[in-house]
TrEMBL record:
Organism for this UniProt entry: Candidatus Portnoybacteria bacterium CG09_land_8_20_14_0_10_44_13
Name of the protein in question: DNA mismatch repair MutH/Type II restriction enzyme Sau3AI domain-containing protein
A GO MF label: hydrolase activity
Stored SUPFAM superfamilies: Restriction endonuclease-like
Keywords in alphabetical order: Endonuclease, Hydrolase, Nuclease
Domain of life: Bacteria
Keyword Hydrolase appears in the UniProt entry: yes
Cross-referenced Pfam families: MutH
InterPro entries: DNA_rep_MutH/RE_typeII_Sau3AI, DNA_rep_MutH/T2_RE_sf, Restrct_endonuc-II-like
Residues annotated as domain DNA mismatch repair MutH/Type II restriction enzyme Sau3AI: 55-148
Length: 206
């Protein structure tokens, strides 16, 4: 099996910037809305093919997995901005208490994600252009990483002091810990990248 490194996946994806994922989906035999029912994961499947990966085979040589994330962007007053926040990883209270930021699942996920900005043209739209490919390739002492760590530390300390139920989406400048799951009564929580963080990553990326 051919191993596609994260760097190679990014290089492969960048070749398709400006192209329409809907048309590429048809080319690769991936259904989107053609059956009358939306295939919610179609963008992810297309991105995996474009990166050179077989579905669910995203192993890096060192055994770490990396993940391709499709992030919807739209124009607001001539400025391209993220349409919504982006889920990073589910929160396990025991693990959050036990692990510092650089030992955490949150950091492990963030540093391995390949962010793919896709133009949002409305629900079930006929086009979805790949706008940009980026990743969080910064050193641990980078100012942005320090600020993300500060968010994590605040959320972790709040959990230790006040309990899991005290975590709210209002906490954190770049990342937040908010409920995830169906309905307003959901008690599970996940780390999310705020739209400001997603925008920042794409602005910094070359």
């Amino acid at each position: 099996m051919k191993i596609i490194t994260r760097a190679t996946a990014i290089k492969n994806l960048k070749k398709y910037i400006g192209q329409d994922l809907r048309e590429l989906a048809k080319k690769h035999g991936i259904t989107t809305f053609e059956t009358g029912k939306q295939n919610k994961g179609w963008k992810g499947l297309v991105l995996e093919r474009l990166a050179g990966l077989e579905t669910n085979v995203s192993k890096a040589p060192n055994g770490l997995t990396y993940e391709l994330k499709s992030v919807a962007f739209r124009y607001v007053k001539d400025e391209l901005v993220p349409k919504e926040t982006m889920a990073i990883t589910m929160i396990n209270p025991a693990e959050l208490k036990a692990h510092s930021f650089f030992e955490s699942h949150c950091w492990a996920k963030l540093k391995t994600i390949v962010f793919c900005a896709v133009k949002w043209n409305g629900k079930n739209s006929e086009a979805a252009e790949l706008l940009k490919v980026a990743s969080l390739d910064f050193a641990e002492d980078d100012e942005l990483i320090k600020e993300i760590k500060a968010d994590y530390d605040f959320i972790r300390n709040k959990l230790i002091a006040k309990g899991f139920g005290a975590l709210t989406g209002a906490d954190g400048k770049w990342i937040q810990a908010r409920t995830k799951g169906p309905g307003h009564g959901s008690i599970s929580r996940a780390f999310y990248a705020r739209t400001a963080l997603v925008k920042k990553i794409f602005e910094i990326a070359s």
